[in-house]
């Protein structure tokens, strides 16, 4: 078992900043995680040792680059426990994955008066694509409500489903509240009505085990940069039966079989969704991120996040004037809070002056803020490098901030 | 703590705690909104134009200490000015709060450092920008 000091030493940015006396307590991993050395090294190594375009070269180097790229696809398949590697599509991030499904799966099925269901706690990335699609097609966006604890009201789901429902889109974990949603149950209810489900797994993939077979979801979207990998990488998992029937998302090189002036034919899965030269270096980095996570073990990572969550929740609740927004029974390592009448940006500026990086604002979840009738929150989110000592320091600084702005 | 006190100057803290002209005036002739989608800060400005001068200027809404104090000072300074004077004062405040230049208006000085704080570039200037855009359309 690795020690927390050992884990922290694998993150050059965290180690470097603190070594040079520039204190950094990084508590914004829900926005993006810091990168371990092996991910950074992998990016350099790819360009140093393996750089060539993939799927088209007839020389050793191109073969090597292609092999590494496709090998990552298999690693991702195993990582999320998918059945086939063809079900893994590389995209630029969860946002692109969701837009891909909106454009190529739902849009062709959606007729006037049809419906799409989203939850009340979605990130804009899993809300706006569906809303805009509904507006384009004169369809109806239905909202699965939540309660004041920030939990989905599962008992309301069946009422929203009918033959008109073409998709349920729901986040695995809320980026604004930290709620872990009962995705398996949602999928099971939706499937009773024959409705496919897309899960936005951006806040889950790097922090807890992901098993798409167990969830039985139809699509699962996540971003590499929120799971210790490079920015500009992401994955869409889709059940083969759906991916097969979907039209390509973007057109161009690498995704075609034959091209004539009057028509073209397209490659098989997964390549028909990967037009143009992909982010090959990024995908190499993503493989290193998966190795990093697997070496630590998702069980350990999840447990560590939970320890920090419990510890921080307890400490923060002791502070007079602090209100935690989102008190679901099942939460991940994300805490949103308000502090008396201190604006979240004033709080985050104060904390920044003490070397603490937190997120302030609406967290791309304006409807969530409206639901709780607040303009924004200060959000604390954890990664594998965070410690209870850092939480002690955070709570001290929050107490001082409350005094400072009194 | 020197840094923080530069930003949260006593003038800013005082206006944040007890803002001037802080009330809704639905009967006002002109009502405009200053909104920053990045942070959700949102102020409503209420005023009349009497004899080509700004009158009865008040505000209400939500914002951080910097944007609220800036809006409070804004209502004090802009009230009674002609449209030309409004634009001249805007320029003075912009030079100070955005470009970091020196100013001869005491109440503006604390905002000189605001734009240097990460992510806080818009706080001081938010209301001023919205008001200026509105006035320019009137001219």
Would you kindly provide a written description of the structure presented here, covering whatever features stand out?
The complex is a heterodimer of chains A (about 400) and B (about 140). Chain A is of the alpha/beta class and about 400 residues long. Chain A folds into 2 domains: about 140 residues, Aspartate Aminotransferase, domain 1; about 260 residues, Type I PLP-dependent aspartate aminotransferase-like (Major domain) (Aspartate Aminotransferase, domain 2), CATH 3.40.640.10. Chain A is built from 15 helices and 15 strands. The longest helix of chain A is centred in the first third of the chain and has 20 residues. Chain A starts with a helix and ends with a helix. The relative contact order of chain A is 0.16. Chain B has a single domain, classed as Sufe protein. Chain: A, CATH 3.90.1010. Chain B has 5 helices and 3 strands. In chain B, helix 2 packs across helix 3. The longest helix of chain B has 15 residues. The mean pLDDT of chain B is about 90. The interface between A and B is medium-sized, with 18 and 21 residues.
Task: Summarize the structure in short.
The complex is a heterodimer of chains A (406) and B (139). Chain A has 406 residues and is α/β, with parallel strands linked by helices.
Question: Numbering strands along the chain, what is their spatial order in the largest sheet of chain B?
Answer: 1-2-3
Beta-strand residue percentage of chain B: 15-25%
**Main sheet characteristics of chain B:** 3 strands, antiparallel
DSSP strand count of chain B: 3
Rounded average pLDDT of chain B: 92
How would you name the oligomeric state of the polypeptide chains in this document? heterodimer
Number of helices of chain B: 5
Spell the H/E element sequence of chain A. Answer: HHEHHEHEHEHEHEHEEHEEHHEEHEEHEH
Total number of β-strand segments of chain A?
15
Distance between the termini of chain B: 45 Å
What is the tally of helical segments of chain A?
15
Q: Return the CATH architecture of the largest domain in chain A.
A: 3-Layer(aba) Sandwich
**CATH top level of chain B?**
Alpha Beta
């Amino acid at each position: 078992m690795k020690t927390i000091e050992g884990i922290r030493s694998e993150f050059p940015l965290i180690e470097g900043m603190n070594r040079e006396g520039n204190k950094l307590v990084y508590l914004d991993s829900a926005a993006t995680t810091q990168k371990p050395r092996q991910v950074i090294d992998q990016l350099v190594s790819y360009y140093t040792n393996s750089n060539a375009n993939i799927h088209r070269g007839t020389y050793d180097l191109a073969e090597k680059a292609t092999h590494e790229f496709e090998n990552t696809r298999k690693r991702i398949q195993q990582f999320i426990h998918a059945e086939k590697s063809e079900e893994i599509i590389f995209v630029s991030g969860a946002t692109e994955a969701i837009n891909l499904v909106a454009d190529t799966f739902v849009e062709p099925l959606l007729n006037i008066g049809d419906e799409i269901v989203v939850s009340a706690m979605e990130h804009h990335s899993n809300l706006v694509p569906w809303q805009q699609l509904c507006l384009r097609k004169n369809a109806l966006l239905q909202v699965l409500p939540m309660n004041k604890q920030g939990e989905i009201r599962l008992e309301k789901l069946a009422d929203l489903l009918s033959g008109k429902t073409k998709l349920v889109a729901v986040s695995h974990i809320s980026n604004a509240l930290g709620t872990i949603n009962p995705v398996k149950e949602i999928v099971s209810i939706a499937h009773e009505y024959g409705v496919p489900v897309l899960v936005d797994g951006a806040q889950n993939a790097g922090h807890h085990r992901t098993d798409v077979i167990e969830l039985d979801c139809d699509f699962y979207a996540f971003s590499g940069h929120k799971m210790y990998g490079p920015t500009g990488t992401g994955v869409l998992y889709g059940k083969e039966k759906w991916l097969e029937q979907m039209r390509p998302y973007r057109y161009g090189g690498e995704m075609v079989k034959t091209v004539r002036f009057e028509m073209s034919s397209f490659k098989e899965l997964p390549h028909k969704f990967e037009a143009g030269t992909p982010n090959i270096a990024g995908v190499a980095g993503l493989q290193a991120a998966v190795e990093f996570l697997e070496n630590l073990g998702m069980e350990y990572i999840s447990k560590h996040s939970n320890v920090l969550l419990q510890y921080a929740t307890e400490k923060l609740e002791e502070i007079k004037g602090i209100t935690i927004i989102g008190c679901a029974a099942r939460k991940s390592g994300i805490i949103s809070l308000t502090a008396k009448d201190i604006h979240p940006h004033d709080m985050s500026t104060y904390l920044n002056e003490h070397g603490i990086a937190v997120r302030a604002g609406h967290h791309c979840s304006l409807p969530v803020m409206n639901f709780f009738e607040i303009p924004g929150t200060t959000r604390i989110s954890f990664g594998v490098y965070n410690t209870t000592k850092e939480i002690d320091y955070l709570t001290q600084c929050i107490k001082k901030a409350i005094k400072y702005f009194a | 703590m020197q840094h923080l006190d530069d930003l949260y100057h006593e003038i800013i803290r005082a206006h944040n705690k007890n803002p001037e002209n802080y009330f809704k005036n639905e009967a006002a002739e002109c009502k405009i909104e200053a909104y920053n989608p990045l942070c959700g800060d949102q102020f409503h400005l209420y005023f009349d134009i009497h004899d080509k001068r700004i009158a009865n200027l008040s505000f209400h809404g939500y914002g951080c200490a910097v944007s609220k104090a800036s809006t409070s000072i804004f209502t004090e300074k802009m009230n009674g000015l002609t449209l030309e004077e409004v634009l001249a004062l805007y320029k003075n405040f912009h030079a100070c709060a955005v470009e970091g230049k020196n100013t001869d208006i005491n109440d503006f000085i604390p905002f000189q450092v605001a734009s240097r704080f990460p992510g806080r570039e818009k706080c001081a200037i938010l209301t001023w920008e919205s008001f200026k855009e509105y006035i320019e359309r009137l001219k």
